[in-house]
Structure formats: structure tokens, C-alpha cells
């Protein structure tokens, strides 16, 4: 009886052993398939990360280009300003020079030309030179200033 039980157990064991091996193979195959799927899932993540990095680099390049363009525009503006200042420098110098001149207006010899400013330097703490400190010249000055205001 025991021998029969042992034989039965051996038969059962022998039938289960290949089944266990097949299960192990199937389990390993499943693990391999899962690993492949995970790799396939991971590859898009890596690709997405690379794409994001490329997009960020592209955005950084665009920002750098915009900054360079703004700098070029500012340089052009500065160059234009410097050209204007050099172009009209003599006028500003002349204004400064005219501020130091006597403020009296002088009648020109030619009747067709406008009266012009006296070319002499004024006395300290005064607007007029020695020649034009007389009252008649002050009246002339006021007259010409009045004409300028009317125009």
C-alpha cells in the first residue's frame, strides 16, 4: 500500500515538475515582455526629455537673439544721437557763445538785413557791453525784443 502511494506520489510529482518548469518559463517570458514594454515606455520619456531640452535651448537662443537685436537697435540710436550732436555741435557752441555776448541788438548797415546782436562781451553782472549801456541802446534793445515777441 505504501508502495502504491509512493508510486502515485511519484507520478503526481513527475507530472507537476514539467508544469512548474513551464510556469517558470512563462513567468520569465512575461517578465521579459514587461521589461520590453517598460523599455518602450521609457524611451518616449527619454525622447520627451530630449525634446524638452531642445525646446528650452531653442527658446534660450531666441531670447539671446532678441537681446542682441535690442542691443543693435540701442547702438544704432546712440550712433544716430552722436551723429546729430556732432552735426549740430557748432550751433550749440554758437548759442553758448552768443549767451556771453552783449544782448544789445545792433542795426545793420544794410537796411534789408535784420538787426543782429552786438559782438562784444558784456560787462560783469550786466547784459550789455560798455558801448551799449546808454539808455538809448537799452530802448533799442527793448524795441527789438518787442518786435520778436509780436512775431
Brief account:
It comes from Anaeramoeba flamelloides. The chain has 151 residues and is mostly helical. The chain has helices spanning 2-87, 89-99, 135-150, and strands spanning 105-106, 116-117.
What would you report as the Rg, rounded to the nearest angstrom?
Answer: 51 Å
Number of helices, counting only DSSP H or I runs of 4 residues or more: 3
Q: What percentage of amino acids are in beta strands?
A: under 5%
What characteristic shape results from the CA principal axes?
rod-shaped
Percent of residues in helices: over 70%
Rounded average pLDDT: 73
End-to-end separation in angstroms reads: 142 Å
Return the domain count: 2
The SSE string, one letter per element, is: HHEEH
Organism: Anaeramoeba flamelloides
Protein name: Hsp20-like chaperones superfamily protein
Explain what you see.
With 151 residues, the protein is mostly helical. It folds into two domains: 2-87; 102-150, no CATH class. The protein has three helices and two strands, in the order H-H-E-E-H. A two-stranded antiparallel sheet has the order 1-2. The mean pLDDT is 73.
Amino acid at each position: 500500500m505504501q508502495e502504491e502511494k509512493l508510486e502515485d506520489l511519484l507520478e503526481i510529482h513527475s507530472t507537476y515538475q514539467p508544469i512548474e518548469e513551464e510556469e517558470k518559463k512563462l513567468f520569465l517570458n512575461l517578465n521579459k515582455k514587461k521589461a520590453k514594454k517598460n523599455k518602450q515606455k521609457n524611451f518616449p520619456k527619454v525622447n520627451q526629455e530630449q525634446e524638452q531640452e531642445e525646446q528650452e535651448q531653442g527658446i534660450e537662443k531666441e531670447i539671446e537673439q532678441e537681446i542682441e537685436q535690442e542691443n543693435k537697435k540701442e547702438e544704432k540710436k546712440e550712433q544716430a544721437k552722436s551723429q546729430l550732436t556732432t552735426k549740430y555741435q557748432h550751433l550749440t557752441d554758437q548759442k553758448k557763445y552768443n549767451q556771453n555776448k552783449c544782448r544789445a541788438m545792433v542795426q545793420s548797415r544794410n537796411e534789408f538785413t535784420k538787426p543782429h546782436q552786438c559782438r562784444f562781451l558784456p560787462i560783469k553782472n550786466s547784459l550789455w557791453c560798455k558801448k551799449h549801456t546808454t539808455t538809448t541802446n537799452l530802448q533799442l534793445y527793448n524795441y527789438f525784443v518787442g518786435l520778436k515777441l509780436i512775431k
